[in-house]
Known about the structure:
single chain; four-stranded antiparallel β-sheet; mainly beta; 16 strands
Amino acid sequence: VLQFTPADKYIVSCHPSKSYQTELRASDTGKLVKSIKLESPAGAMTFSPNGKMLAALCWDGTVLVLEPDLSGKIHTLKVQKPMEGQELPRGVAFAGNGHLAVASSYTNVELFDTREWKSVRTFEGKDRLNCVAASPDGKLLAAGYGVTDHTPGFVRVWEVATGKLLIELK
Length: 170
């Protein structure tokens, strides 16, 4: 899992093998700038639109919200722990500068307010959740679903402010 920082100066990555760690490296030289240890590997990472937070969804259900330079933790959230032998979906997205959408179970996306770190609402799915994305303006949230390669997938799109399901793309 990796992400460029918003100014493209650095790359943040997470290694899925022990010892689990997140690294910040200069994108032009590859030089290690900072690293932090994790209890569990991250399956998804994203920066907030203003570049002031980095969110990482770990396989054990922990959501780490970090300083973008990895200098410290801003907040830690806990979502449903996956069943033995399975990992959480790779879904975490900032919806504007005020919300964080997280794959909180195998079917649902939970929306957190980033000021008080409280759950605002849950967007429900009906199949295995695979990914989460927010529109650039933060008004829409999309989630991709599908069980296996043999099952056609679909995408649900909701209005962030109301939780209203707008469309299901099949």
